[in-house]
Amino acid sequence: MEDSDRSGGSAPDTDEAPVPDADTAITQLYAVHYAGLVRLAALLLRDESVAEEVVQDAFVALHRRWRRLRDPAKALSYLRTSVVRGTRSVQRRKQVARRSPHELPPDAPSAEHSAMAGAAGNAVVEALRELPARQREALVLRYYGGLSESEIATAMKISNGAVKSHTSRGLAALRPVLEPWS
Questions:
Q1: Residue 82 belongs to what H/E stretch?
Q2: Residue 77, phi then psi, degrees to nearest 5
Q3: How much is the average pLDDT of 81-96?
Q4: Max alpha carbon distance in the chain (Å)?
């Protein structure tokens, strides 16, 4: 009878439970332990929204590495370790940010450039004030408002040709005044 029991259709006796697939196992872990892991991270970070991100990152990392996990029974321990390490990483980044001086990006204009641009802008505004009203309106609508000729014509209630004429005359009048700034 021993031979028939061994060769029967039943599964062999093993001490190991079948290993669930990653999705099922992670879903179960998430349902049972997510809130506790967030509390752990929040106590370490004092910021619940960042704590939630750290815990979510830990679950994502576990899912990615599920097949390489030696003992799925230790998945919760892996998650706790990941959460603690994640909070440490966040704290290190915050410390570095606090210690680092706020530097301008490398392509930021210099103070001199900004001052010159401000002065040039003031010169443009002053030169525009000296133009006749229609020329000033056409130029402002075109270059500051970004309107097309037909949109300017509609706004000013004039023809497209008149817009071209006012714009051309206004630019011609501005050129000599603004030439030193170019």
A1: helix 75-99
A2: -60, -40
A3: 91
A4: 113
**What sign results for the dihedral spanned by CA atoms 48, 50, 55, 60?**
positive
Distance, CA of 81 to CA of 167 (rounded, Å): 68
Per the CB < 8 A criterion, the answer to whether 131 and 173 are in contact is yes
Higher pLDDT, 31 or 14: 31
Question: Where is 68: in which H helix or E strand?
Answer: none
The 10s digit of each residue's pLDDT in 110-154 is 665 565 556 566 777 788 888 898 998 888 888 878 889 999 999
Contact 129, 136 (CB under 8 A): yes
Q: Give the separation between CA 69 and CA 120, rounded to whole angstroms.
A: 65
Residue 95 has pLDDT above 50, yes or no: yes
Please check whether residue 25 is in contact with residue 18, taking contact to mean a CB–CB distance below 8 angstroms.
no
C-alpha dihedral, 155 to 157 to 161 to 167, nearest 10°: -50
Q: What is the three-class DSSP state of 83?
A: helix
Dist. CA 77–CA 66, nearest whole Å: 13
For residue 133, the Cα-to-chain-centroid distance in whole angstroms is 44
The full set of domain ranges for the chain reads 19-99, 129-181
- Residue owning tokens 């000013």: 156
CATH of 129-181 given 1.10.10.10, 1.20.120.680, 1.20.1260.10, 1.20.120.1810: 1.10.10.10
pLDDT > 60? residue 17 = no
